[in-house]
Amino acid sequence: MNINVKKLNPDAKLPTGGHPGDAGIDFYAICEVVFAPHAQMRVPTGVAIEIPPGHVGLIWDKSSVSFNQGLKVMGGVIDAGYRGEIIMNLYNTTDREQRIPKGNKIAQMIIQKFEECAIVETQELSDTVRGEGREGSTGAN
């Protein structure tokens, strides 16, 4: 599958794959961003992408960014019809200021096929073994 990418800024880096067979496509910061402790900020990438119909782009943490800096992705569903800039929304979970330099990897996207579904109201749902069991429904350990 080919993914068309448009640079919206000449300094933008195109998304890249890490290793052959990796699911995630890495995105890069177009500018330096400094996060105050426990602050949420948007990090622009300077690129727009064309996700094929029937697919969605799911934004996930880069493990190095989340493990080493405590920056977590907040939200992250990019629909196929969206053609604007990909902007990553990150939250600093730490008590320390965190810095992302211009050009650093910030998050990754997985392109995934999905099924369109119609929402149908009903009075009853089918029975399952789990039923309405929530957290802890499989036992304490």
Please tell me about this protein's structure:
With 141 residues, the chain is mostly beta strands. It has a single domain, classed as Deoxyuridine triphosphatase (dUTPase) (Deoxyuridine 5'-Triphosphate Nucleotidohydrolase, Chain A, Distorted Sandwich), CATH 2.70.40. The protein has one helix spanning 63-69; strands spanning 4-7, 16-17, 25-28, 33-35, 40-50, 55-61, 71-73, 77-79, 85-92, 98-100, 105-113. The protein has a five-stranded antiparallel sheet. A hairpin with a 7-residue loop joins strand 2 (16-17) and strand 3. The longest helix is centred in the middle third of the chain and has 7 residues, at 63-69.
Total tally of structural domains: 1
CATH superfamily annotation: Deoxyuridine triphosphatase (dUTPase)
Distance between the termini: 42 Å
Strand content: 35-45%
Query: Which regions contain 5 or more consecutive residues with pLDDT less than 50?
Result: none
Strand order of the largest sheet: 2-3-11-6-8
Going by CATH, the architecture would be: Distorted Sandwich
Put simply, the count of helices is: 1
Order of helices and strands: EEEEEEHEEEEE
- Largest sheet composition: 5 strands, antiparallel
Structural class: mainly beta
Average pLDDT, all residues: 94
CATH topology: Deoxyuridine 5'-Triphosphate Nucleotidohydrolase, Chain A
What is the number of strand segments?
11
Rough shape?
Answer: globular
Q: Radius of gyration over alpha carbons? A: 19 Å
The CATH class turns out to be Mainly Beta
